[in-house]
Design brief:
Blueprint: E1 2-11, E2 14-24, E3 29-33, H1 40-47, E4 55-60, E5 63-66, H2 73-82, E6 83-86, H3 98-108, H4 114-127, H5 143-155, E7 161-165, H6 173-188, E8 192-196, H7 200-206, E9 209-214, E10 217-222, H8 224-229, H9 234-243
Parallel strand pairs: 3-8, 3-9, 6-7, 7-8
Antiparallel strand pairs: 1-2, 1-4, 4-5, 9-10
Helix pairs in contact: 3-4, 3-5, 4-5, 5-6
Bound molecules: adenosine-5'-diphosphate and magnesium ion (MG).
Residues 11, 16, 34, 36-42 line the site of adenosine-5'-diphosphate (ADP).
Length: 247
């Protein structure tokens, strides 16, 4: 469902992604870990074409986009539609209600009628536990509620895969669980998900596969049980020592 081959990206002289090969089946949940600055966000942003990659190719579903000086715009557009993205900062429209935020994409990108988009948006807000907050603006919602609106908004575009970039990092600990519950439910429903996160317990629980990134490369990958308990790379071990709660 997601495949990258030799995916690379530079910002000026800095090689931020340096040949990422990744393959992920439909319904698989992959968790992306690694130190700050290792390229997790850039990887997700390339998949979603918020950044254009400069080497290699990206496949999501049946669309493959080759790197090139003039990327194929139609394929870029389709990769964006295929991948729902959820950010650390929720990026909701501040002057619109939760319902309007979720309706916006389906109405103006997918061309749905207000009635159609509204019905889907209400169902999705209910799914993330916010049926009674449809008419609230972001400023009237907690961070956890705003993030759940952002997830509903991404789902409203009927993506084939969901990309999460540290979705709970901006939240107080007591608000994280309500967002993680939504992610867990999506995983249970069979959504294909790629999640950058520092929530190791959560990662261990829902991940089929873990990628450890360092310096723009995948330094180690494997099932969570092995990566967390018996990593083969010293770098992975060092990272986990810093981040895992002491046993
Ligand atoms: P992570 O999400 O793992 O913390 P990022 O993908 O955000 O890492 O960043 C990887 C590297 O790329 C960092 O060194 C960062 O400073 C750099 N970088 C990210 N975005 C840009 C940009 N738009 N312009 C220049 N450098 C960037
Ligand atoms: Mg990041």
């Amino acid at each position: 469902m997601i495949r990258t081959e030799g995916l690379g990206k530079s910002f000026g002289a800095a090689r931020v992604l340096d040949g990422i090969d990744h393959a992920q089946q439909r319904g698989e949940v992959v968790v992306l870990i690694g130190p700050s600055g290792c390229g997790k966000s850039t990887f997700l942003r390339c998949l979603n074409q918020l950044e254009t990659h400069d080497t290699g190719r990206i496949t999501i579903g049946d669309v493959t986009l080759e790197a090139g000086a003039r990327p194929d715009r139609e394929k870029q557009r389709r990769l964006r539609l295929f991948s729902g993205m959820v950010f650390q900062q929720f990026h909701l429209f501040p002057h619109r209600t939760a319902l309007e935020n979720v309706m916006e994409g389906p109405r103006f990108v997918l061309g749905q009628t207000a009635a159609e988009a509204g019905a889907t948006a209400r169902a999705l807000l209910a799914k993330v536990g916010l049926a009674d907050r449809a008419d609230h603006r972001p400023s009237q919602l907690s961070g956890g509620q705003q993030q759940r609106v952002a997830i509903a908004r991404a789902l409203a575009m009927k993506p084939q895969v969901m990309l999460f970039d540290e979705p709970t990092s901006a939240l107080d600990p007591e608000l994280r669980d309500e967002v993680l519950r939504v992610l867990r439910r999506l995983a249970d429903e069979g959504m294909t998900m790629l999640v950058a996160t520092h929530e190791m317990r959560f990662a261990e629980e829902i991940a089929d596969h873990v990628l450890f990134m360092e310096g723009g490369r995948i330094a180690e990958s494997g099932p969570p049980g092995r990566i967390f308990r018996d990593p083969s790379q010293e770098r992975t071990r060092e990272f986990l020592r810093k981040i895992l709660p002491k046993a």
